[in-house]
Amino acid sequence: MSDKMTVYRNISENESHMNRLLPVQESFDVIERALQVGGRKAVFYFLDGMIKDEAMVKIMDTMLSVQTSDMPQDATSFAQKYIAYVEVDVLNQFDEIVRNVLSGVTVLFIDGYNAAIAIDCRTYPARSVEEPEKDKSLRGSKDGFVETVVFDTALIRRRIRDPNLVMEMLEVGKSSRSDVVLCYMKNLADGELLQNVRQRLQSVSTTDLCMNQQSLAEALIGSRWYNPFPKFKLTERPDTTAACLMEGKIAILVDNSPAAMILPTSVLDMIEEANDYYFPAWTSLYLKVSRTIILFLTVFLTPVFLLLMQNPQWLPDAFAFVAVRDVVNIPLVWQLLILELAIDGLRLAALSTPNMLSTPLSVFAGLVLGEFSVNSGWFNSEVMLYMAFVAVANYTQPNFELGYAVKFIRMILLILTAVFDWIGFLLGCILLAVLLITNKTLSGRSYLNVKKS
Q1: What is the dihedral of CA 180, 186, 188, 194, to 10 degrees?
Q2: Are 305 and 390 contacting, i.e. CB atoms less than 8 angstroms apart?
Q3: Closest C-alpha among 426, 335, 442, 437 to residue 386
Q4: pLDDT (0 to 100) of residue 69
Q5: CA proximity to 19, closest of 94, 93, 120, 75
Q6: How confident is the prediction for the chain on average, in pLDDT?
Q7: Considering the entire predicted model, what is its pTM?
Q8: Model pLDDT for residues 153-169, shown as the tens digit of each residue
Q9: Do the beta carbons of residue 105 and residue 129 sit within 8 Å?
Q10: Rounded CA separation 214/223 (Å)
Q11: CB within 8 Å of 95: residues ≥ 6 apart
């Protein structure tokens, strides 16, 4: 039987149909609660652990006092008269009812009514609002998004008290049916871009959004594995999101994810962080220029070093000190590539290390392994120095995905330079330019398009 059917007047038929659509007998957390309301049989359906017990007790207490002679003719009148709660809706189709129940909404069937009453007294397990670990600021607010989308929208509303701020709720995923919120300023956002993003969200065909924004992004843009540069900007800060909205950008929130996806995105947005909004213009400009220079160095420092070591005659006398003087037991390119992998290994080890052990293990890895690897002849001290700079410089970029994209480009440059010398280095630079130019973000615009919405 199709779940597009409308609600029956007979409570037994409604109960039988709901028990076929929902695993009431199999799942312990899907609850069916029967009671008498005004001399008629009534049935509640809800998820255990996702309702406010105190609110439901008060609602049930009110309904149990209803007399038979006081029963209204329809569900809408009953809800208006006897459901003493804020968010109440009347539903007529079973697909809407099942979707609401699985979202945590309590649904009430009453014998004689050909509609169900949805009472949104749900509550979600949520952690406290705290500053994001990765996206901290020296000044400004210390709160951040959490995994509950209703709380996230409230954090934005708290900062923008403007009726032009619109929060559109959409549903994506055939199985997960994840809540996706499209946030924008009605008077500032680009209408064409907004319509394009809305249509693409509504036309997404996917089973679930288990990986939140990443799953949504892959569903929206398809497979573009050959381009490592990120297609969107994520932020866990509500103040940064509010600032982007006031600039005319669009934010996408996905339930169960403590981050907002910002559109449109350019390469300049990727290197922007929260501190840029809180400092004066000159300080903010200096920080942006510093991050840009450091980003440039993380891409080209080791490939240029390798190129000069392969062509020492190109090295000016003033920079002769950078030349490798020690015996090279392992080719420089292999030293650099091995250290690229070793740095990621140390990073992964740090993620899996308990907090109480992370500091001593970091000291052990940095001092003992670094010192003995040079003394043993595996690596040259110059290579260790440059790779240490690259490893530290990666953390100056607020965007984690951009850091790995830079890493992949750097490794390609190293390999091409080692194989084809200066021609390979030039080919790598051309490849980098092509990837930047052809990279399309979720908004459909070029990665190098810095135009404001």
Answers
A1: 50
A2: no
A3: 335
A4: 86
A5: 94
A6: 84
A7: 0.79
A8: 999 999 998 989 999 98
A9: no
A10: 12
A11: 3, 4
